[in-house]
Amino acid sequence: MGQKVHPYGIRLGYIRTWKARWFSNKNAGALLHEDLKIRAYIKKKLGQAGISSVEIERSQGRVRVRIFAAKPGVIIGRRGQEIDKIKDDVSKITKNEIFLDIKEVKVPQIDAQLVAENVAQQLEKRIGFRRAMKRAMQLAMQKGALGIKMQVKGRLGGAEIARAEGYHEGKVPLQTFRADVDYGFI
Fold first, then answer.
1. Contact by Cβ (8 Å): 138, 152
2. 130: which strand partners?
3. What domains appear along the chain, each with residue ranges and CATH number?
């Protein structure tokens, strides 16, 4: 049996930091569920903005939410109207004061989560899975990625029996903790 480990979790403390930065002795469970609700709301509401990740920092009555997105203009909206609406909705989830920071992902073709979502959207539009995967890999390599490894599972091409198909290009050193390996799943 294989012992598989999450590529993000194994690198915490070496080259990665936590996506939630806070500590609580008493109500850690409630705060964790709050974080999950905030992340789920942001992913659902701002799906078209290309959300890469959401980081949450908490300190005495304040919650700072950093949203990393490929299209920050979609989140902000005209004259900041959309961001105010999102801030109000998030403040209903938590009782604390909310601060929203929107950061732009400079090269979305290299961000693993955005590449995965792009391929998934193409599959939903009935584009061939091999073509979608190879095109995404080619774009990532052109934009400066040192290597990419991708796998698609399911009833590929409308086949009766589900299967998995994967491709890789360049080098992806999964055993090296100091290697900057990004991971995306959808």
1. no
2. none
3. 20-104 (3.30.300.20), 112-170 (3.30.1140.32)
pTM for this structure? 0.89
Question: Distance between CA 42 and CA 46 in Å, rounded?
Answer: 6
| DSSP assignment string, 89-119 | HHHHH-SSEEEEEEEE-S-TTT-HHHHHHHH
Six token digits for residue 56:
């949450």
pLDDT at 21: 92
For residues 122, 181, 74, 83, the Cα torsion angle rounded to the nearest 10 degrees is: 140
Per DSSP, the residues of 52-79 read: EEEEEEEETTEEEEEEEES-HHHHH-GG
The pair of structure tokens assigned to 142 is: 């052109």
For residue 171, give both structure tokens: 């080098």
Q: Strands 20-21 and 51-59: what pairing?
A: parallel
Average pLDDT on 69-75 reads 88
The tens digit of pLDDT for each residue in 105-144 reads 999 999 999 999 999 999 999 999 999 999 999 999 999 9
Q: Is 144 helix (H, G, I), strand (E, B) or coil?
A: coil
58: left (phi over 0), alpha (psi -120 to 50) or beta: beta
